[in-house]
Amino acid sequence: MQNDAALAAIEMLAARKIPGPLYIWGGRGLGKTTIAQASAAICPAAKVIDDADRWHEIAACALIDRGPLILTGPRPPGQLEQGELGTLLTHALVVELRPFDRDFALALATNMITAQQLHTPSLQVPPAVLDTVVNVPDLDGHKLAGLLKGLAFAAARGEELTPATVERLRNDLIDPHAVDSRITIRLIQRVVAEHFGITTSVLISHRRHKTIVEPRQIAVALCKRMTPRSMPEIGRMFLRDHTTILHAIRKLDGLEVSSPEMRRLLALLAQKVRRQADADAMARYASEDA
């Protein structure tokens, strides 16, 4: 039910029953990027921009292209920072994505478990465990993915999955509102580049050699986990669109489940990032004290 209004609006836009633009907004992890990707198939003629903060591009589309326009963003139009964008969206059809209800969470979790079983055939989630997952307070897509990935890890190790497993995994999840503000995308890029013996400019370049692609994907995954930044925001810092960022995150998620070496590497790099954040903070403190 959460997505019905958005789907209906996209279909009406595709059939030219509404003039557009269509603005879909909601909080973190409610499916804005997924819906934006799906809308390209439902309404191929539409320009889809999965980040309302890119208002210059949006304004250009509205003034030059005049075609169907589908936008997503984290806030209602009246709370967007750019006054020009807020004015443009005054006449938009606005659809809000609401937090998951239990039925939606259950359906989504079931689909995600089926997809995860392709990588982890041993993953069998008992009904009581699944019920605990879908009743987690303030559940969103990111929390759900994190919990199911943790269950896949546990299953791959031969651990029995119980409601207590879910509660333990909840404590390990990163709260996007409680992340270390000292950890930035640039810091993660610098630490990962130094670890692999390359420069930051090479890391974010468009070179496709494996020795560059894998560090880049690792840095992207760490940025998603260790900062509150959205995929479009991360994409801008890596000179890539959000679809490429999503691909990198999903690939690393799969590798993390199947490869103990990758799990150890990600844990090591996360530790290095935290240590570097501490060192940078101490250096700034010493400089100010001097």
Automatic annotation (TrEMBL):
Which residues belong to any copy of the Chromosomal replication initiator DnaA C-terminal domain?
184-252
Q: Which SMART domains match?
A: Bac_DnaA_C
Q: Which Pfam families match?
A: Bac_DnaA_C (PF08299)
The lineage's top-level taxon is Bacteria
Q: Could you tell me what this protein is called?
A: Helix-turn-helix domain-containing protein
The record lists the organism as Xanthobacter aminoxidans
Upper classification of the source organism reads: Bacteria, Pseudomonadati, Pseudomonadota, Alphaproteobacteria, Hyphomicrobiales
